[in-house]
Design goal:
408 residues, alpha/beta, eight-stranded mixed beta sheet, four-stranded mixed beta sheet, 15 helices
Length: 408
């Protein structure tokens, strides 16, 4: 058993009623934030607190998702009004004060903190996140399916086991490093208290409870016990990483080692609701399989809904694209249809039904570039273009011809 101290470095400071953040990449930020909040709220009685992120630098899904969840708790339980100062548009759009919900109708779900309060909302947010990942970069076979399964399982655990009214989630991707990172947080009863409810397990402490939770079949009684155990198997197969922090216990898991530890001097913002954070990342270029990890067949209902009677996947541009004018949108569509093929191993029809015109750059980025990257024979084996009018056909042919001359 390892013992960790949270307070070896300082990433925040207090001045008046303001908390200044200097790092949003280290897990020590969380207990420092809790100490600061408890001091300002419970000792000095502040009802309005300013959070200054102007010098925070880069932002990771963890710890910012956990920080926002803690803010929500203090706002709900103590009526605290938070004011934020940021130094970037990224932080402004993150949802620090007002989290995103399924009612907002927001399309781009990445790099945003979402709040949900039931399994249906968890499912909708999961689909939104996977849809946007699919559009942002091509992933190796099985990565998106395993990610979708794991994300929903972890989010649904909040509803089924934590006793919390809300869960919080954020997903981000790094195209450069080919990493997909997801963090889920709740301020519920914690894994230890959840397992005690079942009477089947008697964990000694929070760390022991986490060790039990990642074993297959271990559940508090309201589930099948596949969630965290399945996630660890996915991480092991993919080569990614997993961190779980619940109460005073923690776990770091990857293909090489598993480390379980207790935090000796961690500050809990509520003893009855010690909270749980699950933070994991997957390598988008490493093949992963649901069958090889959790032994279950995974049916992607969303993608299956695109199938026609010939078992082709029909991608209707008019329904799926946000316009047909920009190169950036064409790139996202190209990523999406490549990922769809890899996920389904089916023939994909690129259907231009209902589209009157496309730009030359759109045609070049979506069709011409893909033909020259895959090769014409391979392109024809995977994709088929249908329902183009004469104008669109001419624009596509011209784009292919021009790209061919550039590649000569």
């Amino acid at each position: 058993m390892f013992h960790h101290s949270y307070f070896k470095s300082h990433n925040t400071r207090i001045f008046g009623n303001c908390i200044y953040f200097y790092n949003l990449t280290k897990q020590r930020v969380v207990p420092e934030f809790i100490v600061s909040l408890n001091r300002l709220v419970k000792k000095f009685g502040h009802k309005e607190i300013e959070l200054n992120f102007e010098n925070a630098g880069y932002v990771y899904a963890y710890p910012i998702t956990t920080i926002v969840g803690i803010m929500h708790y203090f706002k709900t339980e103590y009526g605290i009004n938070f004011i934020i100062k940021t130094g970037s548009s990224f932080l402004n759009q993150l949802g620090i004060i007002q989290q995103y919900s399924v009612k907002d109708g927001v399309f781009d779900s990445l790099n945003k903190i979402w709040i949900y309060n039931n399994s249906d909302e968890a499912n909708i947010i999961t689909l939104k996140i996977i849809k946007n990942i699919r559009r942002h970069l091509p992933c190796a076979v099985g990565v998106l399916d395993t990610c979708e399964w794991a994300l929903y399982e972890v989010m649904d655990n909040v509803i089924q086991h934590s006793g919390a009214k809300n869960g919080f989630v954020m997903a981000s991707i790094s195209s450069k490093n080919k990493i997909l990172n997801i963090c889920v947080f709740d301020y519920g009863v914690g894994i230890y208290n959840s397992l005690l409810r079942s009477f089947a397990y008697k964990p000694k402490n929070d760390a022991d409870a986490i060790s039990l939770a990642i074993k297959e079949g271990v559940t508090s009684g309201s589930g099948q016990g596949y969630g965290l155990s399945g996630l660890t198997k996915i991480i092991n197969k993919n080569g990614g990483g997993l961190t779980i922090i619940s109460g005073k216990g923690g776990l770091r898991y990857d293909r090489i080692k598993q480390e379980v530890f207790n935090f000796e001097d961690i500050i809990l913002f509520n003893k009855n609701n010690p909270s749980t954070t699950v933070n994991f990342y997957l390598k988008t270029d490493n093949e992963t399989s649901i069958e090889d990890t959790i032994g279950k067949h995974y049916a992607n209902i969303e993608l299956e809904s695109l199938e026609n009677v010939n078992e082709e996947i029909v991608f209707v541009i008019k329904d799926q694209a946000l316009g047909t004018a920009t190169r950036s949108e064409a790139e996202k569509i190209r990523n999406e249809i490549i990922n769809i093929h890899r996920s389904t191993n089916r023939f994909v029809v690129i259907d231009f039904w209902g589209v009157a015109i496309i730009s030359s750059s759109f045609a070049d980025e979506l069709i011409a570039k893909m033909i020259f990257e895959l090769g014409y024979i391979q392109f024809q084996y995977i994709f088929k273009i249908r329902n183009t009018n004469s104008s669109i056909s001419s624009i596509i042919n011209m784009a292919i011809e021009k790209r061919g001359k550039r590649n000569d």
